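Dig into what follows:
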Amino acid sequence: MTGFSLSFFFDNVIMFTMIKNLFFDIFPVPNYLNFPLCGLDLCENSIRYVELFKGKDGLAVKNFDKKLIDPDTALKNPEGAVMRAISDLAEKFDIKYAHVALPEDQSYYVKLHVPLVKRENLREAIELQLEEHVPYSVAELVFDYDITEEVKGSDGYIDVNVSVLPISVIDKYLKILEATGITPVSFEVESESILRSIVPEGDKGTFMIVKIGAKSSVLSIVNKGIVWFSLTIKTGGDQLTDAIAQYSSVSREEAEKIKFTKGLSRAKDNEETLFCLAPIISSLRDEIIKHYWYWNANKKSGVQNDIEKVIICGSEASINGLPEYLSASLEIPVSFANPWVNVLSFSNAIPEISEKKVLEYTTAIGLALKGIKREEK
């Protein structure tokens, strides 16, 4: 799945005038393959940026940073708050182009079973079914798809996984980015970016990926290099911080420290913190267990495999004791993601971002890697 590129918009005559001017004024054809390897992750309460470069020893990190979205400004002017945070990064690093991930809760994943048709007619066949599964008309959507199974013959069919974004969402972020001076090379659903970042290239295994953010978490299932399922759960690190602050009568700043240093540790001196966090983190654990068992019980033989492990990432993933807490309820390993797996080898390079901090930049790294795939084509 390639994401939602500007050239894809042209094919569908979406926002033609605006995008045509952006494209031909800024994208001279001879330089098309020379875009910086930049990823811009538009999170719920922050913007994260990563830029990679190709050195003599391979890939390395050139720049990275994040800007928090001011909560007070966001209440009065949400788009203005996002714009301010992006502008700060654009000015600091002179960002002109970037691959952009949009929030997962504004997208859809749909599995469709369509009649066997020629590849050039497949998009039309998908369009005929898509409106039955999302609350928009085809004219209000852009989508991309992966073929997961194709059966030939008189009773043949094609199964596809379709990722969908409403045009209204893309329009909103296009306008924000245009105002900051950044031209988006492509838009992508964040689960696609995370997959590119933490699953080794060519690995056809089946994994559950859990990205834990400040206000929500995204649970996705990856099978044979494709995102098959994604769900946003309204459980995040802020709820844990608030619970500690209220239970222990400490400031939010102190509660943040306790969350990451003590967190879900089962040590004797941490029983009270574990007690106050357990009801919240259990809701996330229960969703993981439910979807783990559902997938394994309903997988299609020959096409899907059992989930091998759970991989956690995101700004709140490094809460102390979290992998151990989740693995205690599952029959498979739970581990932190390695967002460097497709970027560099620890044997010949030391990453500039620490092992725990890099979990925040998983999506942005995946987006920057998308730029490399573009160059290689």
